[in-house]
Model the fold of this input.
Amino acid sequence: MTKVIGLTGGIGSGKTTIANYFAEKGVPVYIADDAGKKVMQSESIIEQIKTTFGDIIFENEVLNRAKLAEIVFNNADKLAALNAIVHPAVKRDFELWLLDNKRYQYIVYEAAILFESGRYKDCDVVITVTAPEEVRIERVLKRDNTTREQVLSRMKMQWNDEKRISLSNFVINNSNLKIAKEEVVKILKILNIKQNQS
Done:
């Protein structure tokens, strides 16, 4: 049976970069955030979001994701309400994806809130990606059209590294990408996963 490697880390830790490196090494990767964006385009999910949050977050019948993010990342209850709509749909999507990849020994399930959502319990192995807070803030400011305050507010909504690490099998420090990639290779060897020799 295919084993699931849960890959997580706080905002700006570079977990998607690490996930992409696993993919380069021949391990199929499922990015939960991308799947969330995809399922949020389905009519039934849009209807549930509209019922829960109202028309205020829609412009010309199109969901304004920035407005929705602003609401949920400043209110834990609203975030929980959104997750209750999106997570079951992502779970179904992942189960179908897993069937398509069942020939693989391991796959990677990358999710920012792997622990907060309880999905880590479905993983055989958990890896947390870390980086110093200032490095993470700088990365997000470069990547997203956002403010330092908004980044800090999103960080507060997530578990801290200490809490994540206490429940992880492996930790990858992603301050330096070359060293982080070497850590991925070590983990592949420990798990005895055949890798692409690129």
